[in-house]
Amino acid sequence: MSNTLTSQHIDIEHIRSQFQVLHQEVNGKPLIYFDNAATNQKPQRVIDALVHHYQNDNANIHRGIHTLAERSTAKFEETRKAAQSFIGANEAEEIIFTKGTSESINLVASSWGRKFLSEGDEVLISAMEHHSNIVPWQMICEEKGAILKVMPINEAGELILSEVEKLITDKTKMVAFNHASNTLGTVNPVKEITAMAHAVGAKVLIDGAQSTSHLEVDVEDLNVDFFAFSAHKMYGPTGLGVLYGKRSVLEKTPPYQGGGEMIKDVSFKGTTYNDIPYKFEAGTPDIANVIAFKEAIDFIQELGKDNIAAYEHELLEYGTEKLSQIDGVRIIGTAQQKVSVISFEVEGIHHFDLGMWLDAKGIAVRTGHHCTQPLMDHFCIEGTARASFSVYNTKAEIDTFIVALKDIITKFK
Ligand code: PMP
User: Where in the chain are the domains?
Assistant: First the structure.
């Protein structure tokens, strides 16, 4: 994360003017939306692109020769190219459209895992994984007799690299972990761990759900084999995501689902499969959302990742400092490198109550285990409240949030 730039490159009023949803009152108070790690809001250009597609271009893609089909296909494939350059992939064919990070990981666990995992092999994940990067591996390990191992973390919520090094052995076939934690905000050392995994011939999958809207991502530089992310966490539509895979790895990975588009030739004797990426895209995809997703990518690119990272880092530092000054507040996740996520608990107040009382003041935070129950167990807690910031949030909103929190603490404790 670049900490040298400042917010001077961010025109906050111009940015906020593109998000109609932010300009409303909730429970009689101006909405403050701090639930961005769950999903962030969509700029008007994304919504306009969706409407434009249905009003002007709607047709199924790839198989038609009429004008609308050609228009839809061209726009669909433009997003693939935009996603390719957004994450620094070598080829557009290495970009597979999925329903989201969860489906991307399930694809790898079930297709790659079924072919390449055997009894006694080991899959390594981390203690701070989202359930989406735990359960698919548990399922395939159970089926194949493989063993799931867990990279431990310290009290700040950082991976303990000396322990990670010991866990990566000749038995390790897959190392799967997140780029940034949705609960702790921790940014993980992807390059370092990838090099360790490759040294023993293991593959690496990165869950990038929380990194693509905050951090520079270059899959070639990181040298990872798979990288999964969701459009809806980066100002794009819900129900859409990407799986990046290295061509050499994807070509050896069997298809995930059977159906139209993923075939070259079908007869009742058998089927030959299509080339990548189509081999992994059975059925009619979410055409309109894919097309609108390009606007979200362009939105981020035009603002500049460095500018976004620098601005969000300012919000993170500001919010962390203000929260730390409140008696009874404990921040969970104090890593050196963090994205703009602050999980916290307040002594004597259940996080669900806290979430409800903040909502009554127009402030949206997430509460609960954040789909990271094993991580909650590690910290011996049931859940947290979580404030997470996007580029349209402001220090003034953090000030209002802090006043609201203090008010709740005095009234209800
Ligand atoms: N991994 C992480 C780190 C996440 O934050 C999320 C979403 N909360 C997911 C995976 C799952 O993403 P999706 O629901 O879009 O599939």
Answer: 7-40+304-412, 47-301
